[in-house]
Amino acid sequence: MFRTAPRGTHRAPGRAVIDYRGLTAPVGRGVGGAAVIGAVSATAALTGAASATAQAPAASAFGTVHGAAPSAAPATQAQYTATKLRLGARGAAVTHLQQRLNAHGASLAVDGVFGSSTLRAVRAQQSAAGIGVDGVVGPRTWSALTGAASAPAAPSTSTNPKLRRGDRGAAVTTLQKQLNDSGASIAVDGVFGSGTAGAVRALQSAAGIGVDGVVGPKTWRALAGDARIGGSSGSSAPSTSGPSTTALLRQGDRGSAVRSLQSALNDSGASIAVDGVFGRGTASAVRALQSAAGIGVDGVVGSRTWNALNSDVRIGDTGGSRGSTGGSTSSGTSVDGNAIIAAARTQIGARYSWGGESPSTGYDCSGLVHYAYNQSGHSLPRKTAKGYVFGGRIISQSEAKPGDLVAFTGNDYGHMGIYIGNGKIIDASGSRQQVVERSIWNAPHVFVTYR
Predict the structure, then answer these.
(1) Whole-structure pTM over 0.85, yes or no?
(2) Helices assigned H by DSSP within 154-216
(3) Which of 136, 380, 418, 432 sits 20 to 30 Å CA-CA off 439?
(4) For 41-91, what is each residue's pLDDT tens digit?
């Protein structure tokens, strides 16, 4: 029998038995330095601590070991801000982002994870800085975060996020409380529903800012200021009481506030049914009233429209003055409606051509208006459809006469025709590619006169 060496001992002394040096190269490429150090340590176990100390490289030569931070200088701010970050990102750059957001009024856990809380804080900062609110941290967002100021001048716009219908949470609760403080009467439930959206629009209308139902910096500032729902800025209450002076109304609404509106419109010269339904007839009367008052013609009843209804503005007048008859006009010229219609009818079947205004070129909608009016002896400069709307006078449907214009408000007053009575028009139709005579279809529209 052969005798074996005792367990734990080598059969022969010296390095020739196990040579660890050959393991370092192939393993080291896969594990980034850890195997190198392991191999050196194994050699040290064979040759003694002193030789291991002599052979062991400095930690900096191998970088991070087992996730520990190296002793080298940390990344600079410029290196962080050169990184574009978005939801789901992780790492040191996200940590730096969270620190900067907190310096600007956020209250985030600095964990290096770009989650939903960080996303909301980014959007709030973008909204406050007046840049694109997309939740992606690029050069403009980094610039806003790393500016000289360590905190925003107006916390109300930097700490309050942009809100819109469908949002939920503490920020919506804060919004609802401030809306109620400004004259609304809505449930404070943290849900941005239709009631909250209506109150936001009413506040925006009272403050004279864009009425879009989205709560951004301007709306937050209006809430922090003296704007009140249903009244002008700085007033504690409207001049008269009741729903007719406080409700923001638009087409599709129903109820007692709409009845009050319809009665007031009839008192101002309209002739519509008082049925509590804000339909096309009511919308046309509202636009006619707004045109007569010289305010924005959008068909939405806000504080300025209510004020016009409570004053001496009458539908059919211009500039808010009371006219002696509903047929008075701003131009003082006589328009022969029958002659206009006759000229337009001669072109039925003519081809549609964008920008065209004659039989040889074809017609677009405004080109046909230009041709028919000028052929009938009424000198009218060439304009777009929208130009003709606001160059004339918006009237109610009950006032419209043959030869007046019907302008469709979609696409920024993108189409019009010549009214021939009985709910019909002649127009240059892009869809049919020719001049046609047809009924007015179910789309928002206004009546315009040059009488």
Answers:
(1) no
(2) 155-158, 170-181, 194-207
(3) 380
(4) 444 443 444 444 444 444 444 443 444 444 444 566 777 888 889 998 998
